[in-house]
Amino acid sequence: MINLNGNVTGTPNAMKSVWEAGSLMPKADNANARKLDFDNTIKAIEKYVSRVDELQQSSDMSIKDLLSSKNEDIISVVSAAAKADMSFKLLVGVRNKLIEAYKQTMNMPL
Amino acid sequence: MEVNNTFSPVDIATSGLRAHSKQIEVISSNVANARTTDVGNGKPYRRLEATFKTEDDGIEGVSLDKILTDMSDFPRIFDPSNPKADEYGYVSMPNVNVPIEMMNLTIATRAYQANAAILKRYQQMVETTLELLR
């Protein structure tokens, strides 16, 4: 289960519920809940992709405006490019991690 | 992960870059007009000074507050051949002191570099954090 939520305060509760269940292994009747969680993950990633896309497009637009001398503020271009770069790197990192997890799952001997 | 929170150091550093480039603009105006004896109303050029303020309370960026004029006296130099000279042969010059402007330029340039360094270092920090994903 991949949890993209960076909410640290949520972790102790989750740990506690696992502890109370008496086992660290997920149970079969949790399958429905897990499916929903993976659904949420995919939705969160979709949202993040569209936000990254917005940042990339605004960076693109500011570079175009600079080159067509519509805008002479080079600082805003640098800022937009830095934001687009950082968010894209995070997206690529998360994507690599997801694909790695998928591959590991598919290579599992049955 | 909230995107706005991640980018706040970028926005703050950007506001610092913008404010200090504006200050460098003011200093360049002072240096360019260091010998302007008439700004249109018969008076010499008055030195300008940029002041900064925080954009908001708390952890926020900086923005240009006001561009104030230096109301100190004009220095008078003896130059009887100058058409602007009064009956005693003295000319009022702008109250710009070029060596002081050069010092201010160095301060503004260093502050600009510091903001650029923060931007660069923050990007490196984010990359270091993303290394943990691999």
Parts with pLDDT < 50 across at least 5 consecutive residues of chain A: 8-26
Arithmetic mean pLDDT of chain B: 89
Number of helix segments of chain B? 2
The biggest sheet of chain B, with number of strands, parallel, antiparallel or mixed sense and barrel status, is:
2 strands, antiparallel
How do the SSEs of chain B run, as a string of H and E? HEEEEH
Span between N and C termini of chain B? 18 Å
- Overall geometry of chain B comes to elongated
pLDDT averaged residue by residue of chain A:
76
- Helical content of chain A stands at over 70%
Shape of chain A: elongated
Distance between the termini of chain A: 20 Å
Which chains have the largest interface? A-B, 20 and 17 residues
Radius of gyration of chain B, Cα only, in angstroms?
22 Å
By secondary-structure content and strand pairing, the structural class of chain B works out as alpha+beta
Task: Provide structural commentary.
The complex is a heterodimer of chains A (110) and B (134). Chain A is an all-alpha fold and 110 residues long. Chain A has helices spanning 10-21, 31-67, 74-106. Chain A is built from 3 helices and no strands. The longest helix of chain A is centred in the middle third of the chain and has 37 residues, at 31-67. Chain A is elongated and about 60 Å long. With 134 residues, chain B is of the alpha+beta class. Chain B has a domain at 8-34 and 47-71 and 97-131. Helices cover 48% and strands 16% of the residues of chain B. The mean pLDDT of chain B is 89. Chain A binds chain B through residues 4, 6, 48, 51, 55, 75-76, 78-79, 82-83, 85-87, 89-90, 93-94, 96-97, and chain B through 1, 3, 6-7, 10-11, 14, 17-18, 21, 119, 123, 126-127, 130, 133-134.
Features:
heterodimer, A: 110 residues, mainly alpha, 3 helices, elongated, B: 134 residues, alpha+beta, two-stranded antiparallel ribbon, two-stranded antiparallel sheet, 4 strands, 48% helix, 16% strand
Concise synopsis of the structure shown:
The complex is a heterodimer of chains A (110) and B (134). Chain A is an all-alpha fold.
